[in-house]
Amino acid sequence: MSQVFDPRPCTLGEGPLWHPERGQLFWFDIIEKRLMSRIGAEELVWQFDEHVSAAGWVDRDQLLIASETQLFVFNLTTGAQTPVCELEPGNPVTRSNDGRADPFGGFWIGTMGKRLEPRAGAIYRYYKGELRQLYDGITVTNSICFSLDRRWAYFCDTWNKQIMRVALDATGWPDGAPEVFVDLKADGLNPDGSVVDAEGQLWNAQWGAHRVACYGADGQFLKAVPVGGAQASCPAFGGDDLTTLFVTTAVEGLTGPAEGLVYMVDPGATGQREHQVIL
Questions:
Q1: Is it the case that residue 274 has pLDDT exceeding 90?
Q2: CA separation for the pair 194, 267 (Å, rounded)
Q3: Fewer CB within 10 Å, N side or C side of the chain?
Q4: C-alpha 114: how far from chain center
Q5: Mean pLDDT over all residues of the chain?
Q6: pLDDT tens-digit profile of 185-203?
Q7: Which residues are CB-contacts of 148 (< 8 A; sequence separation ≥ 6)?
Q8: Per-residue confidence (pLDDT) for residue 1, from 0 to 100
Q9: Rg (alpha carbons) of the chain, rounded to whole number
Q10: Which residues are catalytic?
Q11: Inter-residue contact 88 to 69 (CB < 8 Å)
């Protein structure tokens, strides 16, 4: 069974990141425009003036953070913000959503409509100073992660209930057309954020289902672990030996003391070290 890691309810918890050099979990409450963390019993929060949703680690003290209008470097020690590039700055309809660093030092980030506007979102990759749009016409961008052998990127439009994969070239850019990796339409499940473990298995938070499901590298369902909150949004492996699965949830639209918290569970698997962003 899952246990509560952090008891502060998030309207929309997202983007959990285990920082390998700090041994510390960070996550976001997108709607409340906050970056959150904790060290033991100490609860930490950083407030921003626009929606923030996902991050990658640059070094011990700096994160690359995606907001609704930009990517910027945030210094955890000083609070300084250094702009990196704009992200749909002239589009008031959208905000950033799911994102993750890739094995090549790049950073993938998805956008979506703030009011779930159909097909308003897109997926981008930032790499070596360039932000390039990869896909558009996406309603709810999610599930961005990468295979253990660096051959595939995964992503989804939660709205379509399918997790996709696309082959990558030698520098991490998509090479070919995306294909269906996991189809959840028949089960009526909503794929949200995902992470890949040290054996190449994909762990997918399933919004509304109280669970994170595990799929083999062939896309076959293996098992699911329960989560206390109904709206599981994204998993991250962490802890000293990367054997704890942290899961953000969302209280948005629900009531009850179990909703919106960050949970931790023993998944019976070991994660991989989160990739470093190279600016």
A1: yes
A2: 14
A3: N
A4: 17
A5: 98
A6: 999 999 999 999 999 999 9
A7: 196, 198, 199, 200, 217, 272
A8: 83
A9: 17
A10: 192
A11: yes
